Amino acid sequence: MSSRKNQKRANQLIRAQQAAERRRRRTIWISAVAVLVVLLAGGVTGAIYLTHRNAQAAQSYALPAGATRADPGVPVSHGGVAVDIYLDYMCPHCKEFETLAAGPLNDFTGNNTITLTYHPLDYLNRYSSGTDYSTRSAAAAGCAADAKKLPDFTSAIFGKQPAENSKGLTNQQILSVAHGAGITGAAFDKCVTSQKYAKWVAHVSNAAQAKGVQQTPTVFVDGKQVDASVSAMTNAINSAA
């Protein structure tokens, strides 16, 4: 009799333990579901917030004439072959390339062979002793684009290129160089001194990095990167024309 009672108590204890285990698992499951719901809600909210923030960021910078948010470079001519030049106004090799390429590019743009697009970058800011000369000069290039004088500005500013690891030109000196190239007017001066297009320069540089542009100058002809030399560029243009 005592044995049956003990067995009955043991069975009751087992059932009680099993019931407690089921309650514990149910509590864990309910808690997990609640956490998941919170996380999902937070994720959706976060995604909405990030999308909204990114949309705001995309709208928070001004664009110079000719540039778009999808293609932030500045076209200076229109023709059949696309030529994209990525440059930094602090870059000595960019100056060398631009000096040698100016003649052929003028010929190609003059007869509407190419759509020439400049992409001014901020890659060499670290070489201007904390003054962000690459950004400031590139932003001024955007102002020159508004005046339809970007090629003139590019030639002039490279002609006064400061040495790497210097402070670069001041904004007033940039204005002086531009004025010497015939780019004048109150709107232009205000654009340069206010750095109206500084955020645009950052966007151009981010887009260049996303495209795999790692150095300046970099040249693309009809979407294909070519060696940054005048001969390679002209050969590619002639082949594509």
Task: Give a description of the structure.
This protein has helices at residues 2-58, 92-110, 133-146, 150-159, 171-180, 186-193, 198-211, 230-240; strands at residues 74-75, 81-87, 114-120, 218-221, 224-226. With 241 residues, the protein is of the alpha+beta class. It folds into two domains: 1-60; 74-240, Glutaredoxin. Helix 2 runs antiparallel to helix 4 and helix 3 runs parallel beside helix 5 (171-180). Mean pLDDT is 84; it is low at 16-21 and 32-57. One of its GO terms (molecular function) is oxidoreductase activity. This is Thioredoxin-like fold domain-containing protein.
How do the strands and helices of this protein lay out in sequence?
Blueprint: H1 2-58, E1 74-75, E2 81-87, H2 92-110, E3 114-120, H3 133-146, H4 150-159, H5 171-180, H6 186-193, H7 198-211, E4 218-221, E5 224-226, H8 230-240
Parallel strand pairs: 2-3
Antiparallel strand pairs: 1-3, 2-4, 4-5
Helix pairs in contact: 2-4, 3-4, 3-5, 3-7, 4-5
